[in-house]
């Protein structure tokens, strides 16, 4: 009975998604026309399900064998199937239905919460959500919520979170697929829902809560309950957290290896705390530098000694910085050596700033520049090629480089440039090279075919 | 036997280089040139007034030219399937001719008409002249799938023979040998309708910036070539504020409606190049605009869902927002970003905007700022933009929103900085948004940052006389780049930190195009090609199954299962 009732919402849920199977996995897929719709269709369902599992036609007695397969075999097969296919298979017979509910299959779940008015994506069926809360909450370990830009969706996610009381969740992700709707949920609602998970699941290792109203007190609760297990914390653009709030996490959670946050939370104290002897090696530090309007935000500088401490303690750490600043706001950055590895500039950045990067970013691996002024960047690029020995990827949008300067840059870097994405307009033809020649020259130095990126003329 | 021909105009609204029309004339006793206009469709909301006016002017122009040849244009109200049986009988038609339409909807309609004509015992002659090349041939040479990169497309085009030479225009002599019976009440029954007749309000309509018709097209072509010859520069032009304004040498709307033959344009350009440069092999870049057009026509010809995300195998599935209010602000030029609003105003008033301006507003609507679906932007362009061919419009929108063709998505056009690079003093903005004309250069792209005194002095207070910016660009581009990364990481299964490596490579880009002789056999092969050595050397590691899949077929983009994905990286 349980099987018959569960199936409906799984299939509804999958309604407009013909292809849920990852490429390369078992591609078992029943005919859509034999989807079980009501209890009456049991027989057809059975034959269909068996049909898709067996390549040759089956005798009646071997059908019974399928039902008698040992649990662990069915379980193994089920692990290759998507939830929808498992649900379909579970309505074949009682033994398969039992396997369907085995905890191993419920460790990982993604709640999708969308409103028809704001998103074309389907949602997880409410009945399924209820069933999970009732029957499988204690099995959940890797949980994520994907919500659209509607506040109701984020509120629904919070409601589910507050019911996850008897859980041992290890990873939690709150993901806004469009605009950040968690920011529109009342802070108290959000924080109380989140603390339910923090308090009840005492072995959280990974938390992604970018663009949410999480605050200092809730981080304190996190630390109090999960300090031994926390390894990853992503909280870019969480305006209610203060530098002191994040410092408390760094001080207590010595296993923290990955951290994503906004620049205003980054402090010398934080970097030193992450580099203390008790702390594990940091693997990944992601920093977003965002400003609202020019002149409104003053950016502090981080001391060279603090950066040095980080690299000394964690020599392999990747430091990723995304900048969304006005040109005139860049003054505090890269005046001294900075161990950044990946740089992205979402808005125009000055020639001078790029010059400083060549001087002060010896660990640079990837540099992506969306826009720059109208002066060619030849010198800056050549300096970067000279001094940034680890550089393997570069992307240039609205910038200018002369063809000769660019060839020189590529020649110096050679085949270590595994990613080279340059808009065609960036390259300014000069006496030495035309646009036609440049593709040959660059391909020669890279050791592979290369073309500039093009935009349609339309 | 008497031959009574009907030539059916759809696109291809011209008498020069019109092979199907030539077929109609060939040995015929009577010839009638027909255009079928569905008044309901023409007057519907998704056809803007400029587009409709351009069409009617083109029809007027055709009629004028035909009069000079002692003939007329027959504009028939209705739908082809209803109209033709009537005409076939009334005119005792024995031959029907029209230009080949490569677009899926057109192919379907034409197949039906051909079948219907056959039932009437009518011979149908179809000729290709809207595109330079036979698109099916390009697809065949690319292992039976349309090329997904422009480079690949160019490589294939390079191996094709030159396009067919344009045919001369229809002459009086040719027309004289075939009689067209024109009734006294011709204007009443078959005249070109007015905008009012189609339900448009024309009281406050400003004069057309782009005048439709073949005569205008040929005139512009001449000017276009004069300018090219004068500049003697076939490289890409420097973009400045003048480029943004409609130019009397622009040709794209004329190519779209077929007032100008793409082959004529091609050969005129080529001849000019040979004359000025004295170089026997003009580079493909000379024909950039024409080839891009061809590229998108090729990509769309066998894909019915080319204009939508769902069910479109080359379109990346991106969870766009749905927000009619924001869409309306964009479409009506009320975003609060003067650069974007000026472009949308020009588009609505004149029916044309510069390619860079298209990039700017398309990026702003989709992956750059508003995170709304490219389909909704495409529909607005379809209504307003004179040169929005179905294939090119949809293809370009997919391209610009990074939904297809595997573009790097890191480059996001800034709604403030991008325009400023092109037009530092904001002349363009002052022209289309007169409210802002007194703003100093410094604030013309970002009036909300101007001090209150400056706003008052300029007589335009932000929030009162001109809208506040509808979105914080820095914040939204930060969010959107993360969203794009999420989408592309699922596609490429790339888990590293590099932003550039998130975009999967297209196998075809690194492989040489199929050999001339292999094209014929390859359809029988189980798996056309192993990844070449070069391809294996290339770039980051990818799961083996992805490489195999990419090598065997065109890279299809699937909606990735999300119920099981994404938690992978949380452990």
From TrEMBL, chain A:
Record's keyword terms, sorted: Biological rhythms, Cytoplasm, Leucine-rich repeat, Nucleus, Repeat, Ubl conjugation pathway
Location in or out of the cell: Cytoplasm; Nucleus
Keyword Nucleus (UniProt): yes
InterPro entries for this protein: F-box-like_dom_sf, F-box_dom, LRR_dom_sf
Domain named F-box: residues: 63-109
Residue stretches in coiled coil: none
SUPFAM superfamilies assigned: F-box domain, RNI-like
GO cellular component, one term: mitochondrion
Example of a GO biological process term: rhythmic process
Signal peptide: none
The protein's annotated pathway: Protein modification; protein ubiquitination
Protein name: F-box and leucine-rich repeat protein 3, like
Automatic annotation (TrEMBL), chain B:
Protein name as it appears in the record: Cryptochrome circadian regulator 2
UniProt GO molecular function: DNA binding; FAD binding
Keyword Flavoprotein applies: yes
GO cellular component: cytoplasm; nucleus; transcription regulator complex
Family matches, as SUPFAM superfamilies: Cryptochrome/photolyase FAD-binding domain, Cryptochrome/photolyase, N-terminal domain
Organism (species): Paramormyrops kingsleyae
UniProt keyword list: Chromophore, FAD, Flavoprotein
Keyword DNA-binding: no
Cofactor: FAD
Pfam families registered for this protein in UniProt: DNA_photolyase, FAD_binding_7
UniProt record similarity statement: Belongs to the DNA photolyase class-1 family.
Record InterPro entries: Crypto/Photolyase_FAD-like_sf, Crypto/Photolyase_N_sf, Cryptochr/Photolyase_FAD-bd, Cryptochrome/DNA_photolyase_1, DNA_photolyase_N, Rossmann-like_a/b/a_fold
Residue span of region Disordered: 514-571
All copies of domain Photolyase/cryptochrome alpha/beta, residue ranges: 3-132
Residues at the site labelled Electron transfer via tryptophanyl radical: 320, 374, 397
Textual note on the cofactor: Binds 1 FAD per subunit.
Compositional bias per record (Polar residues), positions renumbered to this chain: 555-565
GO biological process: circadian regulation of gene expression; entrainment of circadian clock by photoperiod; negative regulation of DNA-templated transcription; response to temperature stimulus
Positions that bind FAD: 289-296, 387-389
């Amino acid at each position: 009975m349980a099987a018959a009732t569960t199936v409906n919402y799984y299939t509804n849920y999958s309604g407009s998604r013909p292809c849920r199977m990852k490429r390369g996995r078992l591609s078992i897929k029943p005919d859509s026309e034999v989807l079980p719709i009501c209890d009456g269709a049991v027989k057809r369902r059975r034959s269909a399900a068996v049909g898709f599992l067996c390549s040759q036609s089956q005798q009646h007695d071997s059908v019974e064998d399928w039902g008698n397969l040992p649990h662990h075999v069915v379980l193994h097969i089920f692990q290759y199937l998507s939830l929808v296919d498992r649900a379909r298979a579970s309505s074949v017979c009682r033994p398969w239905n039992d396997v369907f509910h085995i905890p191993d299959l419920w460790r990982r779940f993604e709640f999708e919460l969308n409103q028809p008015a704001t998103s074309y994506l389907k949602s997880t069926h409410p009945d399924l959500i209820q069933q999970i809360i009732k029957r499988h909450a204690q099995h959940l370990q890797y949980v994520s919520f994907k919500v659209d830009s509607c506040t109701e969706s984020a509120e629904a996610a919070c409601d589910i979170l507050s019911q996850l009381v008897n859980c041992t969740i290890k990873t939690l992700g709150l993901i806004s697929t469009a605009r950040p709707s968690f920011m529109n949920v009342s802070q108290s609602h959000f924080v109380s829902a989140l603390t339910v998970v923090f308090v009840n699941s005492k072995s959280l290792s990974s938390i992604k809560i970018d663009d949410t109203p999480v605050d200092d007190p809730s981080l304190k609760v996190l630390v109090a309950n999960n300090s031994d297990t926390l390894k990853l914390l992503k909280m870019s653009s969480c305006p209610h957290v203060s530098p002191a709030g994040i410092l408390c996490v760094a001080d207590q959670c010595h296993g923290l290896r990955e951290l994503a946050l906004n620049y205003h939370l980054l402090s010398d104290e934080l970097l030193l705390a992450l580099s203390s002897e008790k702390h594990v090696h940091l693997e990944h530090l992601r920093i977003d530098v965002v400003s609202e309007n020019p002149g409104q935000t003053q950016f502090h500088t981080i001391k060279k000694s603090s950066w040095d401490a980080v690299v000394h303690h964690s020599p392999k750490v990747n430091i990723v910085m995304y900048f969304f600043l006005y040109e005139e706001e860049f003054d505090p950055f890269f005046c001294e050596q900075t161990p950044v590895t990946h740089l992205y500039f979402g808005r125009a950045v000055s020639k001078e700033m790029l010059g400083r990067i060549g001087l002060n970013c010896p660990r640079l691996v990837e540099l992506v520049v969306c826009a720059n002024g109208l002066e060619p960047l030849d010198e800056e690029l050549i300096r970067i090629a000279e001094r940034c020995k680890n550089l393997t990827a570069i992307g240039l949008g609205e910038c200018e480089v002369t063809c000769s300067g660019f060839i020189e840059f590529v020649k110096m870097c050679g085949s270590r440039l595994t990613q080279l994405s340059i808009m065609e307009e960036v390259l300014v033809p000069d006496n030495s090279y035309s646009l036609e020649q440049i593709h040959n020259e660059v391909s020669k130095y890279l050791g592979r075919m290369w073309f500039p990126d093009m935009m349609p003329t339309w | 036997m008497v031959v009574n021909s009907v030539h059916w105009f759809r696109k291809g609204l011209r008498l020069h280089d019109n092979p199907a029309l030539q077929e109609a004339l060939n040995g015929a006793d009577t010839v009638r040139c027909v255009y079928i206009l569905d008044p309901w469709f023409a007057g519907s909301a998704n056809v803007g007034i400029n587009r409709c006016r351009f069409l009617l002017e083109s029809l007027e122009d055709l009629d004028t030219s035909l009069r000079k040849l002692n003939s007329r244009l027959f504009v028939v109200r209705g739908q082809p399937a209803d109209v033709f049986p009537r005409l076939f009988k009334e005119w005792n038609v024995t031959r029907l001719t029209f230009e080949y339409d490569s677009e899926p909807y057109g192919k379907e309609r034409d197949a039906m008409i051909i079948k219907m004509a056959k039932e009437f015992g009518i011979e149908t002659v179809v000729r290709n002249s809207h595109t330079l090349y036979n698109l099916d041939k390009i697809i065949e040479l690319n292992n039976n799938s349309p090329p997904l990169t422009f480079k690949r497309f160019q490589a294939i085009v390079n191996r094709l023979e030159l396009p067919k030479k344009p045919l001369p225009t229809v002459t009086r002599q040719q027309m004289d040998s075939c009689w067209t019976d024109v009734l006294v009440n011709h204007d009443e029954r078959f005249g070109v309708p007015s905008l009012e007749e189609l339900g448009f309000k024309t009281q406050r309509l400003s004069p057309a910036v782009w005048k439709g018709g073949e005569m205008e097209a040929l005139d512009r072509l001449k000017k276009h070539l004069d300018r090219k010859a004068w500049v003697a520069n076939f490289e890409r032009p420097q973009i400045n504020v003048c480029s943004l304004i409609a130019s009397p040498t622009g040709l794209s709307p004329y190519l779209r409606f077929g007032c100008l033959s793409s082959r004529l344009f091609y050969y005129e350009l080529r001849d000019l190049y040979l004359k000025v440069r004295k170089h026997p092999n003009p580079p493909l870049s000379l024909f950039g605009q024409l080839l891009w057009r061809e590229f998108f026509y090729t990509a769309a010809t066998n894909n019915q869902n080319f204009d939508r995300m769902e069910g479109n195998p080359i379109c990346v599935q991106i969870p766009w927002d749905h927000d009619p209010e924001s869409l309306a602000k964009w479409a009506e030029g009320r975003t609060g970003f003067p650069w974007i609003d000026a472009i949308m105003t020009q588009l609505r008033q004149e029916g044309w905007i510069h390619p860079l301006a298209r990039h700017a507003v398309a990026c702003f609507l989709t992956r750059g700022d508003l995170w709304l679906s490219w389909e909704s932007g495409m529909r607005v362009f379809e209504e307003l933009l004179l040169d929005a061919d179905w294939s090119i419009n949809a293809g370009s929108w997919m391209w610009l929103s990074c939904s297809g063709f595997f573009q790097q998505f890191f480059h996001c056009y800034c709604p403030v900085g991008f325009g400023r690079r092109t037009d530092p003093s904001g002349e363009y903005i002052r022209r289309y948004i007169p409210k802002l004309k007194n703003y100093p250069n410094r604030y013309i792209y970002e009036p909300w940052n101007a001090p209150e005194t400056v706003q008052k002095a300029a007589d335009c207070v932000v929030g009162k006389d001109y809208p506040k910016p509808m979105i914080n660009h820095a914040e939204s581009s930060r969010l959107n780049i993360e969203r794009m990364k999420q989408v592309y990481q699922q596609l490429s299964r790339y888990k590293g930190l590099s932003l550039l490596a998130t975009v999967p490579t297209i196998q075809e880009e690194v492989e040489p195009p199929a050999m001339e002789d292999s094209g014929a056999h390859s359809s029988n092969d189980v798996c056309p090609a192993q990844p070449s050595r070069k391809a294996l050397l290339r770039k980051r590691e990818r799961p083996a199954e992805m490489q195999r899949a990419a090598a065997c077929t065109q890279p299809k983009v699937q909606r990735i299962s999300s119920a099981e994905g994404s938690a992978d990286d949380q452990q």
